[in-house]
C-alpha cells in the first residue's frame, strides 16, 4: 500500500469506509515537529469536502478508477440512459447519481463518468453547455436603465436569468458550475 506522501491529486482513496477523491495534497514539515501530509478530499458518496492530516508514513488504500466519456441518450422515469461511443453499450444511471447534472443534459451531450472499482460514482460536466430557450417572457420596451434580467426556461427544464433581448428559440451558453447565463451560442 502506498503511504500518505505518495498519493496525488485526482486519485481516489478509501477513508472511513467511503471513496474519497483527492483534491489537493501538501507535504508539511513544521519546525522541529514530525512531517505530515495535509489532504483536501471530497466524499464521492455524500459530496462533502474535508481536510485531513496524515502522518507521512500512514498507509493509504488507493482504489482503481476509470474515467469514461459517455453520451446522454434519454431519460426514462428515474433512470438516465447513456451510450458509450466506443462500444455502443447503453449504461443506465439512476437519478440519485445524476443529481443536479440533469439540468444540463441534452440529447447527444457528452459527460465524463468516474468509475471506482467498475461502479459509476460521479458525473463531471463540461464547464459550459449550450441549451435552447423554450419559454421566455417578452422584455418591456424602454426597460434598459441597468442590467435588467428576466427568467427563461431552457430545454432541460432549468430556469436561468437572462438579459431582456433573449428570445424563445435562441441557443445560450450556460455555466454548469452555477447555472448562470454566459452568452449566446455561436
Q: Percentage of helical residues?
A: under 10%
Q: Count the DSSP helices.
A: 1
Rounded to an integer in angstroms, the radius of gyration calculated over CA atoms is 21 Å
Do you know the CATH topology of the largest domain? SH3 type barrels
Helix/strand-derived category reads mainly beta
Number of domains: 3
Mean pLDDT score, rounded? 89
Main CATH class of the largest domain:
Mainly Beta
Shape: flat
Q: What is the count of β-strands?
A: 15
CATH architecture of the largest domain: Roll
Low-confidence blocks of residues? none
Order of helices and strands: EEEEEEEEHEEEEEEE
Structure description:
- The chain has 186 residues and is mostly beta strands.
- The chain has 3 domains: 4-63, SH3 type barrels, CATH 2.30.30.30; 65-124, Nucleic acid-binding proteins (OB fold (Dihydrolipoamide Acetyltransferase, E2P), Beta Barrel), CATH 2.40.50.140; 128-184, Nucleic acid-binding proteins (OB fold (Dihydrolipoamide Acetyltransferase, E2P), Beta Barrel).
- Helix content is 2%, strand content 52%.
- It contains 1 helix and 15 strands; from the N terminus they run E-E-E-E-E-E-E-E-H-E-E-E-E-E-E-E.
- It has one helix at residues 95-98; strands spanning 12-15, 18-28, 36-43, 49-55, 61-63, 65-76, 79-83, 90-94, 110-116, 119-124, 128-136, 149-154, 159-163, 171-175, 181-184.
- Strands 4-3-2-1-5 form a 5-stranded antiparallel beta sheet, with no helix packed on it.
- A hairpin with a 5-residue loop joins strand 14 (171-175) and strand 15.
Amino acid at each position: 500500500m502506498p503511504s500518505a506522501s505518495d498519493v496525488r491529486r485526482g486519485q481516489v482513496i478509501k477513508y472511513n469506509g467511503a471513496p474519497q477523491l483527492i483534491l489537493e495534497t501538501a507535504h508539511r514539515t513544521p519546525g522541529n515537529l514530525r512531517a505530515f501530509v495535509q489532504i483536501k478530499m471530497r466524499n464521492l458518496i455524500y459530496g462533502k469536502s474535508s481536510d485531513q492530516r496524515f502522518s507521512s508514513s500512514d498507509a493509504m488504500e488507493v482504489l482503481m478508477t476509470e474515467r469514461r466519456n459517455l453520451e446522454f441518450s434519454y431519460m426514462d422515469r428515474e433512470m438516465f440512459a447513456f451510450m458509450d461511443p466506443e462500444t455502443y453499450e447503453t449504461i443506465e444511471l439512476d437519478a440519485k447519481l445524476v443529481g443536479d447534472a440533469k439540468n444540463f443534459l441534452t440529447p447527444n451531450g457528452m459527460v465524463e463518468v468516474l468509475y471506482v472499482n467498475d461502479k459509476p460514482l460521479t458525473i463531471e460536466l463540461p464547464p459550459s453547455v449550450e441549451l435552447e430557450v423554450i419559454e421566455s417572457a417578452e422584455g418591456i420596451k424602454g426597460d434598459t436603465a441597468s442590467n435588467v434580467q428576466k427568467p427563461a426556461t431552457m430545454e432541460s427544464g432549468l430556469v436561468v436569468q437572462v438579459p431582456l433581448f433573449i428570445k424563445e428559440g435562441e441557443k445560450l451558453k450556460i455555466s454548469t458550475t452555477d447555472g448562470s447565463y454566459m452568452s449566446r451560442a455561436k
